[in-house]
Amino acid sequence: MLPCRSRIDSAITYYESTFVLQAKALVLNNSLLEEQARNPTLVNKRSFSKLQNKVCLITGGSRGIGAAIAQRFAQEGLKCILVSRSMVELQKSCAGLPGLDHKARFGDVGERKFWVELGKEFKDVDILVNSAGIGQQTLLVRTSEEEIDQIIRTNLIGTVYGCQIIGKNMLKNKTGSIINISSILGLRGSSGCAIYSASKAVSKTSGFTKALAQEFGPSGIRVNGIAPGYIDTDMIAGFSEAMRSSSALKRPGTVSEVAEAAFMVATNTYINGSTITIDGGLSFY
Ligand SMILES: NC(=O)c1ccc[n+]([C@@H]2O[C@H](COP(=O)([O-])OP(=O)(O)OC[C@H]3O[C@@H](n4cnc5c(N)ncnc54)[C@H](OP(=O)(O)O)[C@@H]3O)[C@@H](O)[C@H]2O)c1
Asked: Please, which residues have CB within 8 angstroms of residue 33's CB and are 6 or more apart in sequence?
């Protein structure tokens, strides 16, 4: 047994060290609060992201909306697998992502074989974003058979294959989130975009996203859509300014605005079977 004096000394030492630790925590907390006041974005990034180290596969990741979603997710610590057909653009987009361990895979989302290979190579995808897509600017009667086939194959079949093959892995893992980038035109249509509108009805109108949400939901997998209006990317570069700015906000949306919506859908664990419209009010008209 320690002599009485030593016991008092060790008790004092214990309380002193506890006090020092508490004081250090207070100083750290205060400095974090001060830093937050100076630069809120920096501290937000430091706070632990729900998505840290998760794996996302993003089709159409070489540019436009897909590339912006990859940027946003990579900022949160996600490991991205980017998919598109153009090697150079895709590598550039991949190299520009913050963080490590991102990958690029070249291929056509309309090819089932390509998806089967992706499914075998990447068995632990937590988030699948189907953003690959091509537009249309021709009246139906002037649209060639090849064009019809390419639009349907890329926008619709590509999304279906992605959901089926990556979704199967998610079912085994009993976790996952799928985000299908649809379009407001899938709901309201537009002259010169008949096939595109049909191909984009994967969300609201055809109930594809809602059907999958019902099939996958009991296994803990959420399936949602995002339906953008006119967003400033290569896809609408040839559109007139009047059309690009035809929303109530009188401007096209930005890719980062869509990426924020994707981040919200990816992190909110009770959003399921929904399609988030992000169109500046275009769907009022
Ligand atoms: N921009 C808009 O106003 C708008 C509005 C509503 C919905 N959306 C939808 O948002 C998504 C992204 O469009 P965006 O505006 O970002 O267009 P974008 O800038 O033209 O990008 C399209 C992306 O899809 C890829 N892609 C096209 N066909 C592919 C295929 N067969 N296989 C693999 N990748 C393919 C392209 O890469 P490669 O060419 O290298 O393959 C590119 O990365 C599309 O699904 C589009 O329908 C866009």
From this structure: none
Q: Is 73 in the pocket of ligand 1 (CB under 6 A)?
A: no
201 confidence band (pLDDT: 50, 70, 90): confident
Cβ atoms of 266 and 226 within 8 Å: the answer is no
How much is the mean pLDDT over the chain?
87
CA distance 80 to 61: 9
Percent of the residues in the chain that have a pLDDT greater than 90, as a whole number: 77
Distance CA 154, CA 39 (A): 42
Residue among 65, 180, 244 to mutate when testing ligand 1 (max atoms within 8 A of CB): 65
**In what side-by-side order are the strands of the sheet with 79-84?**
103-106, 79-84, 55-59, 127-130, 176-181, 221-228, 275-278
Which of 54, 108, 62, 111 lies closest to 82, judged by CA?
62
The answer to whether residue 44 scores a pLDDT higher than 50 is: no
Write the DSSP assignment of 71-124 as a string of letters.
HHHHHTTPEEEEEES-HHHHHHHHHTSSSS--EEEE--TT-HHHHHHHHHH---
Known catalytic residue at 196: yes
pLDDT (0 to 100) of residue 28: 46
For ligand 1, whether the C-beta of 247 sits within 6 Å is no
Count the neighbouring beta carbons within 10 Å of the beta carbon of residue 32.
13
Tell me: the pLDDT tens digits for 158-173?
999 999 999 999 999 9
